């Protein structure tokens, strides 16, 4: 599988990253192992998770996703050299003590992540959310120490606005600290406009690798959800309702049209569209079955025509009537 450079990290990654938010949530450990095995066998090489996944599930405490990945690596030690492990720090575990980007907290969090993941170094350690209560210099300084100690290899940001990312990059340059080399924004064919424009331009200017999450808009872009009656098909149904509007239906109609011409599924086309966008290195997408895994691989093989890209762009544009 053809790989792409991930910003200035020095990493080469396949065009889609496995989203580990499903591990310990909609997928149990046994099935997670099967999916991870299939992921590597298909030629993919990057897995994204976060320390707090999946604290939102009743009965969970956070750390479940990292622990499952760690158990998989313990069961298959030879696969560590075949995958890059990305995780995040700072997200809310649903308690007041475990969140944010203070240096002391990051120190504790990285050790906990390393233990759960059963690895000696995290390939990409990402600030899950900006923390306006902490100076960027404090956060970047502890990241510098962790890089020197060999506990993390590169750093990235997630959910940062253009001003927040620009500020952090300037502090890194002024203080000779490590800079964020990746950005993880919410970005897909429906949710376009918080990324396109200033954020995208900044990433292009600084050669930042962009690895968007919610690449399929919580599954809406799969085409499985076209009315409120369909929402019961998934635990994510409540989050999909907001897409059931005229603009969402235009997008699905365009995906259907392009899918027919490409002999592909709507989800595959939605991912292929992302791979045409400026600065996008690899979207993050999850799978809960081997069939979905095969669909992710097919998405990397689709070459959209210029007319198909225009059709999708126009269908997803916001009209005055929306």
TrEMBL record:
Q: Where in the numbering of this chain does the NADP-dependent oxidoreductase domain appear?
A: 15-315
User: What's the protein called, per UniProt?
Assistant: Aldo/keto reductase
* Protein species of origin: Zymomonas mobilis subsp. mobilis (strain ATCC 31821 / ZM4 / CP4)
Tell me which Pfam families the record gives: Aldo_ket_red
User: Which CDD domains does this chain map to?
Assistant: AKR_AKR9C1
Q: Upper lineage ranks? A: Bacteria, Pseudomonadati, Pseudomonadota, Alphaproteobacteria, Sphingomonadales
**PANTHER family per record:** NADH-SPECIFIC METHYLGLYOXAL REDUCTASE-RELATED (PTHR43364), OXIDOREDUCTASE-RELATED (PTHR43364:SF6)
Record's keyword terms, sorted = Oxidoreductase
The record lists the membrane-crossing segments as: none
Q: What cellular component terms from Gene Ontology apply here?
A: cytosol
Signal peptide segment: none
Which Gene Ontology molecular function entries are recorded, alphabetically?
A: oxidoreductase activity
């Amino acid at each position: 599988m053809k790989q792409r450079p991930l910003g200035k990290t020095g990493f080469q990654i396949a065009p889609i990253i496995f989203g580990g938010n499903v591990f310990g949530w909609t997928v149990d450990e046994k099935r997670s192992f099967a999916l991870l095995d299939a992921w590597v066998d298909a030629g993919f090489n990057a897995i994204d998770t976060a320390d707090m996944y999946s604290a939102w599930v009743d009965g969970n405490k956070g750390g479940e996703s990292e622990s499952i990945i760690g158990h998989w690596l313990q069961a298959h030690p030879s696969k560590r050299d075949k995958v890059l492990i990305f995780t995040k720090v700072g997200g809310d575990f649903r308690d007041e003590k475990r969140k944010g980007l203070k240096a002391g907290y990051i120190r504790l969090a990285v050790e906990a992540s390393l233990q759960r993941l059963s690895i000696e170094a995290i390939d990409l350690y990402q600030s899950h959310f900006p923390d306006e209560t902490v100076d960027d210099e404090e956060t970047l300084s502890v990241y510098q120490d962790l890089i020197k100690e060999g506990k993390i290899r590169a750093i990235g940001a997630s959910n940062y606005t253009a001003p927040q990312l620009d500020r952090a990059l300037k502090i890194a340059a002024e203080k000779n600290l490590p800079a964020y080399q990746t950005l993880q924004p919410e970005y897909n064919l429906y949710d376009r406009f918080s990324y396109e424009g200033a954020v995208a331009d900044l990433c292009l200017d600084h050669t930042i690798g962009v690895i968007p999450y919610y690449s399929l808009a919580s599954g809406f872009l799969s085409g499985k959800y076209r009315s409120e009656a369909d929402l019961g098909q998934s635990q994510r149904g409540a989050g999909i309702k907001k897409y059931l509007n005229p603009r969402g239906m235009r997008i699905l109609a365009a995906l259907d049209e392009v899918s027919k011409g490409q002999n592909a599924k709507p989800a595959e086309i939605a991912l292929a569209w992302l791979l045409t966008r400026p600065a996008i290195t690899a979207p993050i997408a999850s799978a809960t079955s081997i069939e979905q895994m095969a669909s992710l691989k097919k998405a990397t093989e689709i070459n959209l025509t210029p007319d198909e890209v225009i059709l999708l762009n126009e269908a997803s544009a916001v009209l005055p009537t929306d």
